């Protein structure tokens, strides 16, 4: 408990930021590797129809992750603010209440989805060709996918409890186990798409087990439970985490929107090409959630402890890191697009051509997406939920859906791939023009008032 407080109070902000950032970003990337590996193994071991089916089921994985981020970030923000205020019992209560809300909410969703599994598959865009692999993967997600959500929830709290490296280790071991089980279930046992899903959730069980010893350490906050639950605390958890829910469910809108548009214009070949892009995007997009999970404990703690200069420096570091990360991801996509497509075992030349063009255009969005995440996370971490929500609604819903509807009509297939990059560019420009200076000014005013 004292170690985390001393680090945040006494160490340089840059050191603390990267102490959180590197494990957070690698942890989120390792989390998304599970879905990426499923795609690679299914592409090689089952075929292109299986790959399309897993892609169609992917929004449910996103929903599970969205709920874990919603409750996890909301609870962990309260947790870190309480530690900054030296209210340890309140911090512990934030964890236990968040765990209870997560269990009840995700349990209800999974039961409802399992009962109506074929209807859900149809809603997600499955046709006669892809219905079977889609329902196979959905069966696993609705019955055991909560394990992956629990792993992410625990990872967020343990990171806020001063042990970001443990989260990275858990997710790294999960990915390794997933590789081994995918090979066994798909290539040795012939379980196909069902085997890919089963490998992922069983690997998640191992990841959760790695977290258990943390709760028995004397020097951490989460070595005891607390039950000071109140309606106000539950409301704060749900409200503060809500922008994270919107950000991640925006990915569902993104996937379904693209799938429906591509089915209508390019057919099954287009869906297969997009499935490659979507797997890669799911892997790389979560790197920006790494920035969020690095910023959040710092901003929340400094806010609770009234350390505004440290908040200001954290924001500047996060901006530079987001821009640098986005540039790296764009270059990787542009230069290595053909190699990335071949990873998934795609052999049809028309599909390869579509996917390579899509990657090179779509990855432009990474140059701008980080700015939205930095300021959404700042507002969320200090409890300004409405400001964070507006950013997410604009970039993930408003601008994207408008561009996805308009651009293909104007410039054809290129307009499909450019819908997200132009939406991200629009949001980044608006933030720089109207939000960034206001935040910097507000932090300075608050600093002078203490």
List the helices and strands in order: HHHHHHHHHHHHHHHH
Most strands sheet = none
Gross morphology = globular
Q: Helix proportion of residues, in percent?
A: over 70%
How many strand segments?
0
Domain module count? 1
Q: What structural class do the secondary elements suggest?
A: mainly alpha
Low-confidence stretches: none
The portion of residues forming beta strands comes to under 5%
Number of helices: 16
Ends distance: 26 Å
**How big is the Rg?**
21 Å
Notes on the protein architecture:
Helix content is 86%, strand content 0%. The protein has 16 helices and no strands. It is mostly helical and 450 residues long. The mean pLDDT is 85. It has one domain (2-449). Helix 4 packs antiparallel against helix 6 (131-144), helix 6 (131-144) runs parallel beside helix 9 (192-211) and helix 10 (231-304) crosses helix 12 (349-362). The longest helix is centred in the middle third of the chain and has 74 residues, at 231-304. The protein has helices at 2-10, 13-45, 48-84, 88-115, 117-123, 131-144, 146-160, 164-188, 192-211, 231-304, 308-342, 349-362, 369-381, 385-411, 413-434, 436-449.
